[in-house]
Write a structure and sequence with these properties.
alpha+beta, Uridine Diphospho-n-acetylenolpyruvylglucosamine Reductase, domain 2, 18 strands, 4 domains, seven-stranded antiparallel beta sheet, five-stranded antiparallel beta sheet, Uridine Diphospho-n-acetylenolpyruvylglucosamine Reductase, domain 3, binds flavin-adenine dinucleotide, Vanillyl-alcohol Oxidase, Chain A, domain 3, about 450 residues
Length: about 450
C-alpha cells in the first residue's frame, strides 16, 4: 500500500505493511485489537468523500474514527476501511461572535484550549483526549452542562458528508430534521466534517470539592449529598465515586472559586469525612485532570444507567460495588432539562443522575472476571434505572439502543436513517437500522 502524503490530491492510505499502521489502528479500549484493510487518513472533506466512495465500491465495512474512545470499539473495523479523521483536528475561534468551528477529528482538549484563550468555553467532557465527534453526536455531558446544556445543545450547525458522498449542512433552518438527529443520534447519518459551536464567557477558574468516607459509614452522608445535588446552583455539578472501599462525595464548580467555596459550606451537612480535598484550579486543568487515570492502552468494560431519582435503596446498591470496580454518579438537571425532550434525538433529559460502572485491566485472561464484576454492580443499580446514555453503551446491542431512545424517537431516527443511509453504510455505531436492513435480515 503506497503512502502518498506528499501528493495533495491523494490522501495517505495505510495498509497492514505500512509504517504507522499499528499506531493508527489502536483505539482507547485495548479490548479492540482489530486490523482494518485500509486506513484513510483524511485531511479534508474531499478525502472523506473519496474514502466513502472507495468503501462502497470495494464493499468494505466502514468505521469512522475521531478520538477513538468508543466503549464498544466502534471506530476500528476488522478487515474494513477506517475513515480516520484525526488529521482533521483544527479548531478556529471567533471571540467576538463567540463561535468555534471544530473539524470532525478534533479532541476535546483542542476545543477547550482554543476557547479558553479568550475566557470562553462550551460544554465538553471530562477527559481531554476524548473526541469531539463521538461525544457531541451522542449528547456530550460535562461540567458546564448544567449551565449551558449538553455539547450537542451548543452546536448551531453541522457540515456532514452523507453515505452517497454529498456534503450537506444541518442547522435549525437547513436540513432541520438531520440537525435534530445529529444532536444525540450518534454517527448514524454520515461523517460530520465540521461542528459550529456556541461559546460562553465562563472565565478560566474552577473549584473541586471532594470528601472521602469509608463505605460502611457513607450511606447517611450520601443521602445528604443527594439532597444538595438536586437543589444546587447550576455552577455546581455534584459527583460521587465508589472504589477501593472509599466513597468520594463532592462537586465541581465552574466559575468564581470564592462563590464555590461559599457553596461548599453546605457540604458540612454530610458529616465528618476521613479526608477532604478542596482545590482551586484552572478550567483547563479541571478538563484534563483525569487524562492519566483514564488513559489509553488498558482493557476496559463499562456499563451505564440513567437514574430519574436516587432513592436510599439505590444509594445502598451503589455503595455495595465490589472494591475492584469504579462506579460513579454525575448530576444532571439545570440547562440540560431546560431543553424540551422532543427538541433533539438525545433523550432522558429529566434524568437526575448518570451512573457509570467501569474497570480496567491488562491481562486478557482476566476479561471474563472483570466484565462479570462490572455487570454485577450495574445489574444491582439497574433495578432503579430509567434509561441509558447512548455514549456509555458497550456490548448492549439492540436492547441498549432501545433503552437510550424512547419508541417515538427511535421511529423518527429510523425514518431519518432511511433518508440519509438506507443501506446502513454507517452501522459501526450504536446502530439505528434503516427499514431496508431489517427486512433484508428477515428474509
Ligand atoms: C476516557 C473517557 C472519558 C469520557 N468522558 C465522557 C464525558 O465526560 N462526557 C460524555 O458525555 N462522554 C464521555 N465519554 C464517552 C464518550 O462520549 C464516547 O466514548 C464517545 O463515543 C467518544 O467519542 P470519540 O470521538 O472519542 O470516539 P470514536 O471511537 O472515534 O467514535 C465514537 C463513535 O462516534 C462516531 N463518530 C466519531 N466522530 C464522528 C464524526 N466526526 N462523524 C460521524 N461519526 C463520528 C464513530 O463512528 C463511532 O461510532 C468518555 C469516554 C471515555 C473513554
Amino acid at each position: 500500500m503506497g503512502t502518498a502524503a506528499t501528493q495533495r490530491d491523494v490522501p495517505q492510505v495505510l495498509g497492514p505493511a505500512d509504517a504507522g499502521y499499528d499506531e493508527a489502528r489502536a483505539v482507547w479500549n485495548a479490548m479492540f485489537d482489530r486490523r482494518p484493510r485500509e486506513i484513510w487518513r483524511c485531511r479534508d472533506v474531499s478525502d472523506v468523500a473519496a474514502a466513502i466512495h472507495r468503501a462502497r465500491a470495494q464493499e468494505l465495512e466502514v468505521a469512522v474514527r475521531c478520538g477513538g474512545h468508543s466503549m464498544a470499539g466502534h471506530s476500528v473495523p476488522a478487515d474494513g476501511l477506517m475513515i480516520d479523521l484525526t488529521p482533521m483536528g483544527d479548531v478556529r475561534v471567533d471571540p467576538q461572535r463567540r463561535r468555534a468551528w471544530v473539524q470532525g477529528g478534533a479532541l476535546l482538549g483542542a476545543l477547550d484550549v482554543a476557547s479558553q484563550a479568550h475566557g470562553l468555553a462550551t460544554t465538553a467532557g471530562n477527559v481531554s483526549h476524548t473526541g469531539v465527534g463521538g461525544l457531541t453526536l451522542g449528547g456530550g455531558m460535562g461540567w458546564l452542562a448544567r449551565q449551558h446544556g449538553l455539547s450537542c445543545d451548543n452546536v448551531v450547525s453541522f457540515e456532514v458528508m452523507t453515505a452517497d458522498g454529498e456534503c450537506v449542512r444541518a442547522s435549525s433552518d437547513e436540513n432541520a430534521e438531520l440537525y435534530w438527529g445529529l444532536r444525540g443520534g450518534g454517527g448514524n447519518f454520515g461523517v460530520v466534517t465540521e461542528f459550529e459551536f456556541v461559546l460562553h464567557p465562563t472565565g478560566t477558574r474552577a473549584l473541586s470539592v471532594e470528601l472521602d468516607f469509608p463505605v460502611p459509614d457513607a450511606a447517611p452522608a450520601m443521602s445528604a449529598w443527594r439532597d444538595l445535588a438536586v437543589t444546587a446552583p447550576r455552577a455546581a455539578t455534584y459527583a460521587a465515586t465508589v472504589t477501593g472501599g472509599v466513597a468520594t462525595l463532592g462537586f465541581v464548580w465552574v466559575g468564581d472559586p470564592a462563590a464555590g467555596r461559599e457553596h461548599a459550606v453546605a457540604i458540612s451537612a454530610l458529616g465528618r469525612p476521613a479526608t477532604e480535598r478542596i482545590l482551586e484550579l484552572s478550567y483547563l486543568d479541571l478538563q484534563s485532570r483525569e487524562d492519566t487515570t483514564r488513559g489509553h492502552s488498558f482493557r476496559t468494560y463499562v456499563k451505564g444507567h440513567y437514574l430519574g431519582q436516587l432513592s436510599d435503596a439505590a444509594i445502598e446498591a451503589f455503595l455495595a460495588h465490589d472494591s475492584r470496580v469504579s462506579a460513579s454518579l454525575q448530576a444532571y438537571g439545570g440547562a440540560i432539562a431546560d431543553v424540551p425532550d422532543e427538541a433533539t434525538a438525545f433523550s432522558h433529559r429529566t434524568t437526575a443522575f448518570e451512573y457509570v460502572d467501569a474497570t480496567r485491566w491488562t491481562d486478557p485472561a482476566e476479561d471474563e472476571e472483570c466484565k462479570a464484576l462490572v455487570r454485577e454492580g450495574a445489574a444491582r443499580v439497574g433495578a432503579f434505572a430509567s434509561g441509558v446514555y447512548v455514549n456509555t453503551l458497550s456490548d448492549d446491542g439492540v436492547n441498549g439502543v432501545h433503552r437510550a431512545y424512547p419508541p417515538a424517537k427511535l421511529a423518527r431516527l429510523r425514518a431519518l436513517k432511511d433518508q440519509y443511509d438506507p443501506d446502513n453504510i454507517f452501522h459501526l455505531n450504536q446502530n439505528v437500522p434503516p427499514h431496508r436492513a431489517t427486512s433484508a435480515a428477515a428474509r
